[in-house]
Amino acid sequence: MNKEYQEHADLINVTANKRLSFRARLFSNKPATLAVVLIALFIISALLAAFIAPYPYDEQNLPGMMQAPSIKHLFGTDEFGRDIFSRVIYGTRISLIVGFTSVVISTSVGTLLGSLAGYYGGIVDQIITGLTDIVYSFPVSLLAIAVVAALGPSLFNLIIVISMVSWASYARLVRGQVLTLKEWDFVEAARALGMSNFRIIVRHILPNSLAPIIVMATLEIPKAIIIESTLSFLGLGVPPPTPSWGSIMNAGRSFILDAPWITMAPGVMMMVLVLTFNLFGDALRDTLDPRLND
Amino acid sequence: MKKYFLKKLLFMIPVIIGSTVIIFLILHLSPGDPVDMIVGPNVTPEVYQNIRISLGLDKPLVTQYFIFLGKLLRGDLGQSILQKRPVLDIVLERFPVTLKIGVFSLILSFIIAVPMGIIAAIKRNTAADYMSMSFALLGISMPTFWFGLILLYFFAYKYRIFPLSGYETWRHYVLPVITVGLTDAAVTARMMRSSMLEVIRQDYIRTARAKGVRETVVMAKHALKNAILPVITLLGMRIGWIFAGSAVIEIVFSMPGIGRLMVDAIFARDYPIIQGSMLILVISITLGNMLADFLYALVDPRIKY
To answer: Could you read off the pLDDT of B20-57 as tens digits, one per residue?
Structure first.
């Protein structure tokens, strides 16, 4: 067996052979363990925002406006006297909802189109690949701004927009995976047994290309979160008074000289969340891709 | 080679046509009546109808699109609703600011990222590697606008080293270029490192070493030349990212570029300006992509389509 073949076989078998040791190997990676804990904390604080936040996110208190961080207001207050800490906790919701839902949608769409293109080839492949190339070469945030400009800002539109612009990378990845996998003997065997194309794709091809898809999805979540905050920062995200980290920073921008904490607090939280997902994604990739284990 | 360039040039056409469709549809998908936006609600039905006809809004959508496309080809982007001036003039006035930020950021990014990625790869698992990769991870995890705001707060408000806003002198460009350049360098450095790691393991590197070639020569002549290729491919995407991100940067630093023009126009519902600024961004991005492709073909002699 030549080396290249062996490497390929390793990659293909990774989900099956290494499942037993997968968890152990992932958690032997300290940053990854920390990342898992942090992600859990973020999810908990988003779910339990109402209990964790000391104040309602929209409670105004004009005499107490633009107070510096203190015991009473951990991250200070904004120009309406609203508690930044509470707003940031509630803002976690928007980031996570947008991050997870848009990645689920774009992964599904991209995987579907990519496997169709790879499996059937021919004209189907040409159409899908052409479409993918066009979306891929169009810068994501500009397309997002364009669509939001047309449809108007809302949480729903935000998720649609982000999914619309990010499915192409999955389609490309899955197409490539399917192209190599479909030449394998087990696919040939399944076909000989009279399995339908749909079943072959779902039962045999997709499970074998799961590893890179999961890695990509993990690394796309932070990207989606950044696009959301960027659009919200431009005022094209979730409309007020719902707090999103991007819109809090946008409001804080005008007061950055007198009240820098309005901008700093959500920015630091955002960086921690995005960094966490990136760390986790990197660790996942290193664990799932045996070619990097030397 | 010629065939390759031709193919790349031809690929620009569907991208630009696709973009013009999106840009055209923005006006038609958006809520609200364009005629109302131009003249306001208090006009007689005759005046309303005349304006509708003069704008071509009474024709079917497809016809309208081709009229729009025809005008585009003649360089006619329409009139700004707010400023009552040709959109093309306004857009061209604003473009140099965006272009300057973009070009200088890209140069800064490569100056930082390429050596950093190479050193991280050569000195894998050493302090130098960990430090530069932590920097890179931090860079990709930071929203650009936030990094910009932090720089603005410290270097313009607090210590007043650089001006707060404006675009007249080079000093105005320092903070925006650092913001975009550094965040972009983070992505490129990661790419450079993994590409270099891939190349170092190849047989021809082992051969070169076995021949007794000095290590610096192996790295500079054999490894770097191959490792830089994926980074050049990435260049096209980075150009797109920088232009598309111009809106955020220009708003943070109050620079009158295309991105800010576009966002201001979205809030003012000045649709011809939105379309014009998006179009010029798309064209610059597509041209940037093409430039990166050409560069790639020039550097990589294996490209023959």
So the answer is: 887 888 767 766 666 776 666 677 778 777 777 776 77
Inter-CA distances, A120 with A127, A182, A197, Å: 12, 10, 9
What ipTM was reported for this prediction?
0.83
Nearest to A139 among B241, B266, B274 (CB): B241
Q: DSSP for A158-207, please give it.
A: HHHHHHHHHHHHHHHHHHHHHHHHTTSHHHHHHHHTT--HHHIIIIIIHH
Give the model confidence (pLDDT) of A162-175 as tens digits: 888 888 888 988 88
Tokens of B243: 């232009």
Q: What is the pLDDT of residues B139-156, one digit of tens each?
A: 888 889 999 999 988 988
Beta-bridge mates of residue A77: A83
Contacts of B195 (CB under 8 A, 6+ apart): B117, B227, B228, B229, B230, B231
What tokens appear for B187 in the block? 């992505």
Yes or no: say if A117 and A129 are a contact pair by the CB < 8 Å rule.
yes
Residues found in chain A: 294
How far is residue A132's CA from residue A142's CA, in Å, rounded to a whole number?
Answer: 17
Torsion of CA A284, A288, A289, A290, to 10 degrees: 130
- Which residues does B235 contact at the CB level (< 8 Å), separation at least 6? B106, B292, B295
**Among A71, A79, A88, residue whose Cα is nearest residue A264:** A88
Across the range A138-147, mean pLDDT stands at 76
Q: List all residues of chain A from 222 to 251 with a beta carbon under 8 Å from chain B.
A: 222, 226, 229-230, 233-236, 246, 249
DSSP E strand stretches across chain B: none
Q: Which residues of A touch B251 (CB under 8 A)?
A: 234
pLDDT digits (tens, 9 = 90+) for A105-129: 999 999 999 989 988 888 888 888 8
